[in-house]
Amino acid sequence: MSVNTPPLEASQVASETLTGPARVPGEQPDASTTTLISDLANQPWQDGYTLGKGINAVTGVLCGSALAPYTVVPAQYSDSRDEFSSVTSTSEVERLISGSASGSYNIGGLNLTASTEYLNQVKQSKLDMTILATSLVSFRDYDTIEHNGLQFSAEAKQLLDEGKLQEFRNLYGDYYLGGHKRMATFRAVYTISSDTEEALQEVKVAIGAKVPDMFTAEGVAAFKQATSNSHISISFSLDMQGMPPNAPGRPPVPAGVETMQQYQQWFLNNCVPVPDRGELFHYSQIDHRIPTTLPISPDIFVAVGQLYSETYLLRITLHSLPSTWQSTYASQVQKQVAQVNANAQNLVDDEPVLQVLSAQTTALLTDVDNLNHRYIFLQNIRKMQATEPPVSVAQGSTVRYGTSVYPNEAQDPLFVIKSATVSHAESWEMGHMEHDFSLPAGGPIVQWELKQNRSDNGVWWKNHQHNNVDFVLLNNSAEIRCRSDYDRGYDNTLTVWYVDKSLIPNYTPGKVTASAPEAE
């Protein structure tokens, strides 16, 4: 991601303290010391990585190579497998992020590589789920630098011989890229969205614990049956890594649910595995004079990892909103991601900056998540529109429509449900008496009631509402007519419960979402 956001001011750390004191063998490090793991496998392979290059675990930057010429031992055996999984909870999203994009310590940061771009397509909420159908062609082992006889270059060895450990670390980092695992990945991403929680739950039940094999006709049929509800919409994207750009024999039909088997076969016939996972080795495995400890609390690295995880989750949570709702926080999320990226190299050494960015990201994630809950709440109100009586059909009792119970109230105190009331009463006169209520609200109505305050109160009915909408719920006014019984009076009270329209992005009376704005 290319950004021009300047980093927050970072405090300076004296360079001579970075390597820390030598630790006596068998001595337990204190809580302010991190002992670096000597072998880090399964690290996301970043752009710019090449075997032999160094990596700084604190800043995450790619460094020069400290190694003398070496031999690479290539992996010999590959195999293929298919995987099918569903993403239906926040914990599953977090596991997806951890498995696909998160490196150890401060290595990797927020950089989305080509193999992790698919995370931008993932959606998860009470109204969204994602199914991943993945075909992997992977070598079983890593292509690895031969360790027997591996030595440092003359320049690197001279620094160590002169005891210039910090200068060595500044130039070459803590680890070297000692291996990579080559993979080719075919990943179909199906995002399933619903306008009701019940409809999405039916999909989850129909699919079951085991996702159908989406690369077979039977699996496609089972998937189509599970998602046949009219309240369900499906979007699809295909991500292929290790696929030559000009591979021959591309299927003549567009990629989609029913053509996945053709595309998978095309992929298997043409793919060429590329580096996808890296293995990092600490330099102490070559020379034991290099300390494995850093004067940094392990908790700092945990906090950095949590910040990256929440930032990924922030983007996914925003993406799970309807497009017309995303604009409320899109610029803030983009700015926050840019700030985290701009400060990535300083996060471990500057705890105040880390704390500020963590607090900002958590607060923004809460705000976006609350917006998601508001959307779900209003979708439930939209469903309740069906309980309202038709326009001009007389009613003779007090009934309350909608609900003012917001399930996320404790976490979203800004989402206040207000009320407005108007009453009208007339004493006895000959014939029928009628009165039109017109009660405006400052935003979408989530509940309303016409209360008849006496037993012989006549009838009432809905008039046509404003904005050519026949429903009071989600409208911004209520239009009701009351009529007394013959030679009788009446006493009625109309109450509406509503939320301020400023809390609802692109509010359109009578609807949950507005139409997407046209491109300029």
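Second entry:
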Amino acid sequence: MSQKLVVTFLGLAILFMVSCSPCVLMAQTKSKEWYNEKHRPQFHFSPEKNWMNDPNGLLYFDGEYHLFFQHDSYEKVFTNMSWGHAISNDLIHWKEYPKAIIPDGDGFGLIFSGSAVVDKNNTAGFGNNAFVAFYTGTELQQQQCIAYSTDKGRNWIKYKNNPVIRNEKDDSTPADFRDPKVMWHEETKKWIMSLAVKDHVEFWSSHNLLEWKKESEFGQAVGGHSGVWECPDLFELPVEGEGNGKSKRWVLLVNINPGGPNGGSATQYFVGDFDGKHFVMDEKFEHHLSAEGQWVDYGTDNYAGVTWFNVPDRKITIGWMNNWNYGMKAQTYPWRGAMTIPRTLKLVQTDKGHRIVSWPVAELESIYTTQQKVFNNKKVSSSFELTNAATKTSTYEVTLELEGADQNGFILEISNDLDQKVLIGFSPEEKRFFIDRTQSGRSDFSSDFPGKHYAPRLSNSAVIQLRMLVDHSSVEVFADGGLTVMTDLFYPDKVFSKLSLKSWKGETVIKKATLKGIKKIW
């Protein structure tokens, strides 16, 4: 080999090493530029660039929360789908890593949604504590495949005998056969997979993650069926306020598109029992279940929400903060798509059966600023401004306790000086919360985007409690301790930094209001 060739080879090697450094290093050096981009979320995860949708493969291990997600490396639309990857130590500050699982000509096409587990006891034979990911690959029909990692998710190897669950190609098998969510069922000492199959969920079991047996089906005749069922998730939760915390129920999340309560995509849920083979709804829950299901989030922009595997002390979920009605048209650049704030899920007993409660993770408090304003016992008969020169910020949290609002109603207005605004409120006549983004700014990219969205009030308390998170392009509303949740996007020409409270009718008393600034996550 000539000296010239050696120099050339070394130069290329150095260039290759530099260009293949982990994306996290690039993210750390460019993050300040990212967060100056118009509409870029300041405290929600969004990828550096291009299209993103469903969260995938959520798992926790050795102090790290892994967030995989549907990602297109080349386009701002759903086209060349792979699993993107980000890691956090606190669920708030994320570092984006190189792609985890990518199409590579193995015959299974694109890499669709799925899940991941930590195989602590080496049931699959890949090694103790190997990460095993389950995803849907396409080979004419949708098939369930696996990949594994022995270095805590940094590098992935596709299983040589994929698919592990084959979609038999006959007329009786639906094309929609996807989104495997795997969990460990301690009572039967088996792995359980929930699989979305067009209009229902199938449950499969395995001792080794490689060989699977179909156990049962659920859902053809219950819940919402205005769209395709997707991204299921099955897990057990204690019931707060029942049996001294010893009572437990199984929760089945099912995402549906379209068919959400305010149009497009959304996440419904069911409560019941699971014996390792069959999911059976509770009678009381079934009695109160409307034809269109119960919803984790009544807003238009929380979809494909699933939970983290292996978190020891709570059940945490995150969702794609967008909607298939208009997601591929949203006017953001160079990225398109973000995640909701991670949320803790709990199950509570109400007079209408068991209900899911959703609440921002406690780690969010780590990025509150020192800017804070507290109001107590303020009577509002018309309008009251909650922001002022000392607290004005475009990213913040406000918590409110409103007395008389169940009878008189209220409207929270977030706005800018261009007369663009989003209204969040409660109608006492209809007993419904709402978000109105008809005047929120850019909406001409889709006729489905502007609108007024509604959610039922599920508490009988005379005091309405409200917690609201406002970012540059989103609002997340948690009412009555998280019984009613709404998430909506917006795209104003200038960030919203004003907040005021208006009484719907009569007088509303602010028993307490606290406004806290929220920092950027870089």
